[in-house]
Amino acid sequence: xxxxxxxxxxxxxxxxxxxxxxxxxxxxxxxxxxxxxxxxxxxxxxxxxxxxxxxxxxxxxxxxxxxxxxxxxxxxxxxxxxxxxxxxxxxxxxxxxxxxxxxxxxxxxxxxxxxxxxxxxxxxxxxxxxxxxxxxxxxxxxxx
Length: 144
Known about the structure:
Layout: E1 4-7, E2 25-28, E3 35-37, E4 42-46, E5 49-52, E6 57-62, H1 65-71, E7 73-75, E8 80-83, E9 91-96, E10 102-104, E11 109-117
Antiparallel strand pairs: 1-5, 2-11, 3-10, 4-9, 6-8, 6-11, 7-9
């Protein structure tokens, strides 16, 4: 599948994969200088890129395990959803969960993007649902 991408900035880096079978494509910070993220704060980081996704697909923006585990940095909304009709810059709001200041360097990998299909749905209101063995058992109801 080919995804059309537009560089809005001369310094923007196209997404890359860490390995042949990697599901996620790394997104890079399009910064001219290092950006500081204070403890328990969020900073929006532009990728300098815009995408044209096919109808029926969306881009999920996920944390990169390395900076999440080592630095305590993650997308502020945990998983971003970029719809196929969105044509603006892909900006990742990075949240610092740690108790110390963190820095994002120009062209640093900040998140990973996975393009996925979705199903268009129609919701049909009803007075009852089909019963199951589990029923309405919620959190922890299926055991350990």
